[in-house]
Amino acid sequence: MTTRALNDFLTMTGPGTPMGELFRRYWIPALAAGELPDPDCPPVRVKLLSERLIAFRDTTGRVGVMDEFCAHRGVSLWFGRNEENGLRCAYHGWKYDVTGQCVEVPSEPEESGFCKKMELGDVIWIYMGPAEHTPPLPGFEWARVPHAHRFVSRRTQECNYLQAMEGGIDSAHVSFLHRHELRHDPLHTSKGAELTRETDARFEVVETAGGMIIGVRRPAGPGELYWRITQWVMPFHTMIPPYGDNALNGHAWVPIDDENCYTWCFTHHPTRPLSGHELETMRNGGGIHVKLIPGTFRPVVNKDNDYMIDRAAQRDNKSYCGVKGIAMQDASIQESMGPIQDRAKENLVSTDNGVIMARVRLRKAALAAQEGRTPDGIDPATHAVRSASIVLPENVSFYEAAADALVAKEGVEHVSI
Ligand code: FES
Ligand SMILES: [Fe+2]
Question: All domains of the chain, ordered by start, with CATH?
């Protein structure tokens, strides 16, 4: 059972909390590279792990990410002037370079809360932990394929990261919540999608060096099982099992603060550029992506408009929950648990084994970090994995039979039906 104390331990990620200190040991996707398109473009605010930060690109194209507030008297540097290789506070003109150092009026020690940052896979990542523990660059396949193979979006989700991420681990809900999209969503149809509508799903969880693999089997045909295999990589990455030749999808569930998170949505194809049709569909909020209110990361469909629930569609079996689109179905259901789900009240069953194991691993990793040990999921080799969907004979170990399919290999097609 998850006690209130354990719930707090797992869900709170502000400075000084055990989980917050753990998350600060990893590279964190912070903003899309395209949000800072040009040298000296306007600075961008981003809040992560309950810390408010400002990101800017200087005159020579270097990115800086640092504490949003001026060291002088706390004005937001979002009002700042981005000029001549630095961001200048609009109040009294103190100026900061991309390392966070105050370089003009007066001189400051180099500690003003700056973050390490780098660009990879069209995303600006930051590292907020101790400099001596800076991890190697991430090895996720979506971030390593050519630009044309990838589509990335992010949206805010109005709940704690953990219940959102647990939705990414829990493959049992797909046969219910998304069952109608498995026939109608253009990026989610295949023979496997049809088999996923079977609700008799059995879970097997295998721990790995960087997280875990969740195998879910459903009846396929005489003597055969359809396996959907999800990857969870510490601390907040999930990879959705694919359908046919559709591209692979994954998420990163990144805390903004304890009651909000960024849901990063990554779509990539290992061996081909995404087609015009795929890109167009995703730009219009299809697949795992959503339409946003212009100028924000908040979905157009949100809790203030009751997620535009369509009761007629729900009644007529066009949508299981009445909310349109896979991503907002997930988000609405997860937000409905409240800003932080009270796990002391839940009743877990065997299909929740993946969720249970993730909580155990996160707790262990936070304690390991506290004790000075390196937490799991830092090694980029543990990121170079894939989800898969595959039909296997009964009585075969899915983990052994699918071992090759679960590794990301450059230029090699993914395994999917
Ligand atoms: S508050 Fe920023 S320079 Fe005074
Ligand atoms: Fe879902």
Answer: 27-133 (2.102.10.10), 141-406 (3.90.380.10)
